[in-house]
Amino acid sequence: MASNTLKDMNTLPVTEKMSECKPSLAKPCVGKMNGKSEDRPLPSSAAALDPSAVDTEKAAVEVEYIESENLDDVDDADAVLKTVVAGLDSKDWVSVCDALNNVRRLSIFHKEAMLHMLEKVIPLVVKSLKNPRSAVCKTACMTSADIFSAYNNHITDLLDSLLTQLLLKSSQDKRFVCEAAEKALTSMTKYVSPTLLLPKLQPCLKNRNPRIRAKASLCFSRSVPRLGVEGIKEYGIDKLVQAAASQLTDQLPESREAARTVLLELQSVYEKAHPIIKDETSSPSSLPEEEQTPEGVTWEMFCQSKLSALSAQAVLRVTNVVAVPAREGLVTAGSSSSSQL
User: Which residues form a coiled coil (predicted)?
Assistant: First the structure.
């Protein structure tokens, strides 16, 4: 009897043999959603035989990336506010994406109503940024951009972990996730006060990861000009020069170029605030240190007083100031005086 059954099985077509397999053994595959490569499960065996079932199942897991200006308001803000935290913390990634989009809608249309929930919402957005699914990561990046736009300086105290993850995602993920993270960082530098943001960025300029340093340098270079002349003075131009100078020797060109941009901006501000006084009888260098006025200190002298010799030389080279070593100046002066004798 057993031999007859085995014989019958051997005569079955291959497709019928495969249908005997347990559906639980099926593994997920990579598909496409909205033209983007994304992970989604294989359709069930019934869906494989019925094309309409395939469309239904695809629609069930499809994630749509909606630009901020195209988002619609929620139907019931109070009801969404009550469920949004649970949705963000869900184990179902599609539910998480839906909740993230609801956070975006609330930020745009009901930002005052969600203000008191930011302490719970932002850590869950950071959690979504760490999610292995690219669809969740990108949606979380888009959510971050809308949060920056809506809440500005209200999120400064919650910014550290969010900033770290956005810098990481903008440098080490799939291209479409990187682009979304970069847009979020641009939104951050646009809407968050540079006075509050720069202290958060400066530690990132020393990160061990060179790509994170590069992205942080770009944010730094966008934030400094937003301070304005008075803001730069209040923040401390020496602090900004030192931070930018440290990036001039970075291994990535993005960091070095961002540093050049900042230093040229700072040089312009410094020279406008400290005009050079041309007085041959009493040059600033000939006066005692306590009698020197800020207006008499040139950009070259300022850099040499605030930076190491090598850093000052690099900064002056970038800002097109030719620094003459003191010893060389003395030699030149001595030779000219001896020739007159």
Answer: none
Q: Extract the tokens encoding 42.
A: 């294989």
Q: Is 31 helix (H, G, I), strand (E, B) or coil?
A: strand
Give the tokens for residue 61: 């897991």
Indicate the Cα dihedral angle 169, 170, 174, 180, nearest 10°: 100
Summarize pLDDT for 210-244 with one digit per residue, the tens: 999 999 999 999 999 999 999 999 999 999 999 99
DSSP result, 320-339: T--PPPHHHHHHHHHHHHHH
Q: Rounded to whole angstroms, how far apart are CA atoms 15 and 261?
A: 65
What's the CA gap between 312 and 319, in Å, rounded?
Answer: 11
Q: What is the pLDDT of residues 236-268, one digit of tens each?
A: 999 999 999 999 999 999 999 999 999 999 999
Is pTM beyond 0.85? Reply is no
Secondary structure (3-state) at 37: strand
**Helix (H/G/I), strand (E/B), else coil: 252:** coil
Residue with tokens 């195209």, as numbered in its chain: 70
Phi, psi values for residue 34, rounded to 5°: 55, 35
- Comparing CA positions, the residue from 317, 281, 279 lying closest to residue 299 is 317
For the 67-192 domain, the top CATH level (class) is mainly alpha
Give yes or no for a contact between 279 and 257, defined as CB atoms under 8 angstroms apart. no
Q: Domain-by-domain residue ranges, the chain?
A: 67-192, 194-276+298-321
- What single DSSP character describes residue 74? P
